[in-house]
């Protein structure tokens, strides 16, 4: 991949990843606040549908393009592979679990608020881990390098 294209894909990847992390922090704040103001679950559901999922998919696609189009490769370095697996798991969890939980909380389903808070904490831990390994690039190369 030529430098201008790589930088464009990298910029889109960083923007979507940081956005995903930021919305997750916002959802955590909303989940904590919603225990005393349950209408905030509706905002969380809206963020889940309209912001989190598009950002998650964009981060996944741009990360895949970058890994396949640059020297890092998808399976050459352990940190890239780990980040890809974490992202796939997070996108699947967002698609098939988080959004449903947020809709249940917005509808007032018993216990869904605790689930929404737990999901926000797990999401934040996953995205923070992905960010840390992106910066420090630990563990070296894989056997497929």
UniProtKB/TrEMBL annotation:
Protein's name according to its UniProt entry: DUF2269 domain-containing protein
Keywords of the record: Membrane, Transmembrane, Transmembrane helix
Transmembrane segments: 9-31, 51-68, 80-102, 114-136
